[in-house]
Amino acid sequence: MPRLDFDQALNAEQLPAVTHGDGPQLILAGAGSGKTRVITYRVAWLVQEHGVDPSRIAAVTFTNKAAGEMKDRIEELLGLYPLPAFVGTFHRFALRLLRAYGPRIDLSRDFVILDGSDQLSLIKKAMQATEMSTDAYRPRAVLSAISSAKNRLLDPAQFAARADDFFSQTVVAPVYRRYQALMRAAGGVDFDDMIMLTVKLLRRDKELKQRIRDRHRYLLVDEFQDTNHAQLMLIHQVSANPEVGGNLTAVGDEDQGIYRWRGAELDNILEFERSFPGATIRKLERNYRSTQNILDASGAVVANNVHRRGKRLWTDAGEGEKLRLYKARDEVDEARWVNNLLQSLAGDHRHSEMAVLVRTNAQTRAFEDRFLRQGVPYQLVGGVRFYERAEIKDLMAYLRFVRNPMDNMSFERIVNRPPRGIGKKTLDGLLAMAAETGQAAWDTLSKDKLVGIPPRGAKALARFREQMTPVIEAAVELPLPTVLDRLLEATAYTEQFDEHDDEGQMRLENIDEFRSGVQEFAESHGYGSTEEDLLTAFLDHVSLASDTDSLKKRPGVTLTTFHSAKGLEFPVVIVAGLEENVLPHFNAQELPENLEEERRLLYVGMTRAEKRLILTTCSRRRIAGNYQDQEPSRFLLEIPNRLLDIETSPELFAPQRPSWNRPSPRSGGMPTEGMPSWSLPSAPTASKPVSGSDAVNSFFGRQPAKEASLPFEDPAPSLTVVPVNEPTPAARRIKRGTRVRHASLGAGRILNIEGSGEDMRLIVYFDSKGRKKLLAKYAQLEIL
DNA sequence: TCTCAATAACTTTTT
DNA sequence: GTTATTGAGA
To answer: Which of A15, A97, A162, A569 is least crowded, fewest Cβ atoms below 10 Å from its Cβ?
Structure first.
């Protein structure tokens, strides 16, 4: 293949980083400065110019998606050369070692990886077992304390020895100990364990460590600012020559560190030279992504941080447009304005070239509603993940169980799913028996005579045993997709769902999707591995997968959080919800370190933009159902005025509400004759739709919401549903059989009405979407 | 033991 | 607005 022309392909900052010889270097790569390019070209340079065998190179990142991209681009550059020994995430790197050498630190070879919800339920169990009230202490807080202990490589004993406050000493320490015991007994390992155990393994096994170091003489680490202490130690273990810091190339940007809450230590990058003496530090400040205005604005914001080395990005792309700032009345107004803006930009940009970025997932709802209603194609990244759905987790647990029947956690999950008459009593009895003999539940069930279990339960258990035994045997030799099918057959798993029921249909679809995922995986990974290994590989694959990884370029506006937007870029970016308590987030106000992280979050969001950057802020917002007055984010003040074009919502100047909807003093805010609770606008022009809860608020005499005329509202009149105890003329029209229309679900017929007042629920059969249950208060139905 | 309805609690970000 | 948990009744 032709040699690469490195001088040609790289700029003056990139070239020395790529052609750096031996010894540690840190590359401080600003946003959009071509950092992936530097990493991939460095791999190519090492191989082609420095004579390094690719099998001695490893590249590590945080996300599967970044790793995948890196792999593709390295492959492209290297052509016929073999690929590096490893390109992947920290966790996959650790997993590979643990699967191979776990037994050297007494770890079962076929351990199970716990996901977040597994962890949480295990924490609850551990808290119960240690008689810790789950009301007094939030399991989530305990879990995050344990996680941070693991990130600092503290085992339960070390943690207990250092615990110096009440919570750590009396709550976290005992729960941590019990949590580990329960997890190991069940053959489980959590995400944090994976790193911690790998460090332990390498520290303990000197011979293995030397082999690993030989195999990874050149190590490249991306997103270095997001490494935690455990990961830094792992890097040290793997680096070839610790006395000189090894041939480590670390790439990162301290201004984009947004995982402090997960244990990331910015000091790893800020004090790199202390960790790796003699390191060369380089900066990449030339930006290829954004206009100078975008760089100046984002740079001005992040300049307020103290914890940074500091750099100044520049481009020769020109100033570009000013940033726009829209001051919205509330999140509905915000979404409407953004929607209109996107429509008006649709001439210049495809939908897929635009993104709306928010701080919290909850903020996406208002945008989703609006986009759905206006038919704007969009793509929501994040939220509920496929693999977290109950039916998928069930099937995963089944697969884990048939691979390793001693996996008690999976056993407990599936033993009565679908319901087979194995209730709490029966299960407790079995588990008690198992605990006595120190066996797994399945062992007890298949070998021992069941005692102390009610006959009905014993019978159900026996039936379960008969169902599972052939499948467990099949798992060793039959192809993975066949095993799954046998499983579904033997358990009659799908029969618990009704395909005519909306929810049931969705679950069945998910199961189908899971089946084809299994099929696909088997086809692409099947060569040369045993069926058992394939099953293990599949389970690992799913455990380490996240939704962002499979993010395909689909046509549509991207709607996502700052966190999952990292590494992406768009010609048009809208950064929404720039308010105090949103960004910076409510929970991040006290510590200056947290505040700086919030600022970095905004910086990451702003620097995603190539050509146009739009900011929005609301003067009030509904949070957990209640309206709250919002202050503009303090970070807005950090953007130089000369870079901003400000536009204010007309709704902020016209707070008049239609008189018929204003609580009248005479009626004390209660409804009177002629004040429709089911407000049906007589004509589209007179349409004054009011959001359900506002109407509810005024109805119940609460603080009236400042609802104004909605100039951008779609022409279709919408109906506000207000729950009432006394049916008003309009409310009487809502009964079984009434035809209604929903903004996104279309037309349908009311099947039934449940409850009354604020909690009135309507069962509606929609022509195209089937049965849905709606809360009348929020549904905004239109009577047909 | 299972099903359904009422209630409470929750919302920061995720490998 | 959703989702996890609890409680009552079949």
So the answer is: A162
Nucleotides in C strand less than 7 A from protein CB: 1-3, 5
Active site residues of A: 35-36, 222-223, 256, 608
- Which residues are within 7 Å of strand B by their Cβ atom? A 62-64, 89-91, 116, 138, 140, 191, 258, 261-262, 359-362, 382, 416, 419-426, 454, 456-457, 544, 546, 548, 561, 563-564, 585-588, 624-625, 754-755
The answer to whether strand C lies under 7 Å from the CB of residue A591 is: no
CA-based nearest residue to A562, from A543, A581, A582, A580: A582
A440: Cα within 13 Å, side-chain hemisphere? 17
pLDDT tens digits for range A693-745: 222 222 222 222 222 222 222 222 222 233 323 233 333 345 555 556 665 55
Report the predicted TM-score, pTM, of the whole model to 2 decimal places.
0.77
Average pLDDT score, chain A: 79
Task: Tell me the per-residue pLDDT of A440-472, one tens digit each, with 9 for 90 and over.
Answer: 888 888 877 777 777 778 888 888 888 899 999
Nucleotides on chain B within 7 angstroms of protein Cβ: 1-3, 6, 10-15
CA A145/CA A422 separation, integer angstroms:
35
- Under the banding of pLDDT at 50, 70 and 90, the label for residue A649 is confident
Contact A213, A202 (CB under 8 A): no
CB proximity list for A125: less than 8 A, separation 6 or greater: A182
Q: Which residues contact A6 (CB under 8 A, 6 or more apart)?
A: A15, A18, A19, A41, A45, A49
- Give the separation between CA A610 and CA A186, rounded to whole angstroms: 49
For residue A571, count other CB atoms closer than 10 A to its CB: 17
How far apart, in whole angstroms, are the C-alpha atoms of residue A171 and residue A159? 12
